[in-house]
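All the exercises in this workshop are built on plain-text protein records. Sequence and backbone structure share a record, each on its own labelled line. The question running through the whole workshop is how a given chain folds. The record below serves as our worked example for the rest of this section.
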Amino acid sequence: MNPKTEELLERTFNFGVNCLKLIETLPITKSYSIIAFQLAKASTSVGANYEEAQAAESTKDFVHKIGLVSKEARESNYWLRVLNEILETSSSDEKFQKIFSESLELKKIFAAIKLSAQNKLKKEK
């Protein structure tokens, strides 16, 4: 496995864990519970689906799986954007801002990987 893949596997794992830790600090209300549930699912799915993509059986299978990773990264970023707007302390919270920045980076990285894989698949046909 190449070093960039290993680094991304670690980053996606840490992203999910850090989101779960963030969720544990949220107020317990109906609104936050909905956001917490959605963010927990999406953020941990980024890493889980990227792990699964490493075992893809073909380029077509990889494109499909990396597409799921990209979707989950986008969804995670969405829920973090919602939190950024409603949490009173998010703009001054260094840990939150680090997670939020990572979500933006992962969203961009996986969109680029998906595009590259799609181009590779087109060339194979």
